[in-house]
């Protein structure tokens, strides 16, 4: 098993264990973990976004983006990539443009 696959598996197991505590089903917690993993993968492989520390949260398919980006264009790109992820029902961008 590759390191990336192991990390994804660990995240899914952790999310499944926390599912009931967060007011959502285990299935939804796993789906949210998949969404976060997919978006994070897009960010670390994107030339414009890979150098920034962006936080992605998902609850029942509603994604929240946090962190700093260098431009409004980068913030828009981050939101667009999140929206294009399967399972995402809403995106709340709380990204701040660095000055």
Reading off the top of the CATH hierarchy, the class is best stated as Alpha Beta
**Overall geometry:** elongated
Radius of gyration: 14 Å
Overall mean confidence score, pLDDT: 85
Figure out the total of helices: 3
CATH architecture verdict:
2-Layer Sandwich
Biggest pleated sheet: 3 strands, mixed
Percent range for helical residues? 40-55%
Q: Provide the CATH topology.
A: GMP Synthetase, Chain A, domain 3
What spatial order of strands do you see in the largest sheet? 1-2-3
Strand content: 15-25%
Low-confidence stretches: 16-21
> Which class of secondary structure composition applies to the elements?
alpha+beta
Distance between the termini: 42 Å
Counted beta strands: 3
The total tally of domains equals 1
Order of helices and strands: HHEEHE
Question: How would you describe the overall organization of this protein?
Answer:
α1 packs antiparallel against α2. The protein has a three-stranded mixed sheet with strand order 1-2-3. It has 99 residues and is α+β, with helices and mostly antiparallel strands. β1 and β2 form a beta hairpin. The protein has one domain (3-97): GMP Synthetase, Chain A, domain 3. It is built from three helices and three strands. It has helices at residues 3-18, 26-45, 72-83, and strands at residues 55-59, 62-69, 90-97. Helices cover 48% and strands 21% of the residues.
């Amino acid at each position: 098993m590759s390191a990336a696959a192991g990390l994804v598996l660990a995240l899914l197991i952790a999310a499944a264990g926390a599912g009931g505590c967060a007011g959502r089903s285990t299935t939804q917690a796993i789906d949210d973990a998949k969404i976060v993993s997919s978006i994070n993968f897009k960010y670390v492989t994107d030339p414009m976004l890979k150098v920034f520390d962006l936080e992605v949260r998902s609850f029942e398919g509603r994604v929240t983006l946090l962190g700093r980006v260098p431009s409004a264009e980068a913030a828009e790109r981050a939101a667009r990539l999140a929206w294009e992820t399967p399972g995402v029902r809403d995106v709340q961008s709380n990204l701040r443009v660095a000055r």
